Amino acid sequence: MNKTVYIITGPTAVGKSEVALKLASKLDGEIINCDSIQLYKYLDIGSAKPSEEEMKIVPHHLFDMVDPDFNMTVATYQKLAFACINNILERGKTPILVGGTGLYINSVLYNMDFAAKPDTYERREELEKMAEERGAEYMHAYLTAIDEDCASRIHPNNTRKIIRAIEAFEAGEGIKPLDNCELNENYDFKFYALTMDREWLYAKINNRVLKLVKAGLVDEVKSLLDMGYTSDTQALKGIGYKEIIEYLEGKTDQKTAVLNIMKNTRHFAKRQLTWLRRYDNLNWIEIQNGQTSDEIAEYIYEDSIKGEN
RNA sequence: GCCCAGAUAGCUCAGUAGGUAGAGCAGGGGACUGAAAAUCCCCGUGUCCUUGGUUCAAUUCCGAGUCUGGGCA
Fold this sequence. Notes:
- It is built from 13 helices and 6 strands.
- The protein has helices at residues 16-27, 52-57, 74-90, 102-109, 121-134, 136-146, 148-151, 159-171, 198-214, 217-226, 242-248, 254-276, 293-305; strands spanning 4-9, 29-33, 60-61, 94-98, 188-195, 283-286.
């Protein structure tokens, strides 16, 4: 059986979805979402989800999977993604994983083991309370006492990660370094990342934020709040949502909220690029000014089949 | 036209009792095994507006000029 799996990634707003759609048409492929926010229902505009029309062109999977208050994890994503990939391959089609959530991509590309039992949120709350009362240094010292090796890899200020490490230690094995993972050899990956000149990318980001606002982002957030979701809801901590909530709560004006979305999106794109630089098996595609998504898809198609008969 | 206050990093500003300067933001780089659109770390040379003067030494003090605010006419 053919085991080819395409992965199309890159920073937010670079144009992944469009290219993937074109590529899917050429390959008789099906698109699998690899974006942590697009997994959620009702978060359509702010997450820049493909439109209903686009989803009709080729099959789209793992969009609108869970309610906004669902506690999504990489482990859950990994399970969903493997099931989806296998199903597509069994039907003789080509899976195309599309998205910018680096850790999620990693969970498919590499053998990440999530077999250990998940921690409980009660314990997490306890640890968070402990961190608040005793401070970051104490938490790091505590982790050092129980799992020195792991503690040495986490910055003392990164309380969130320290708490996770304590949870993981208590659940069994503790957390292992990412770079220990072996490539997942169940599939033949064609791994591509789109990128472009930083200035253009940032201009594109700013532009897209404006478009999202015009498309009704504020109303989307309002309706989510009307449904009973709050700023504590995990999905609503995503970029574009948290800033609009601040505005709706009167903490900022709309203009500031929009500028904050732009800024946070730029920061995010930068972090995505940093993450992706870790992969030496990644094919970077530097998009040139004026290049169309068709051309890029064509390039990926040609590049990926060359050397094969 | 007159009076007052500014002019220092991409932006907003601090500072130097005269010995060529530093914060926040923006920007750049990095880390990452169950929240990842999360969380965390590191990175600051710039005609200190121009030009005279005083001085061993001026971004700093004094004078003049230019520009920008505010006030008075």
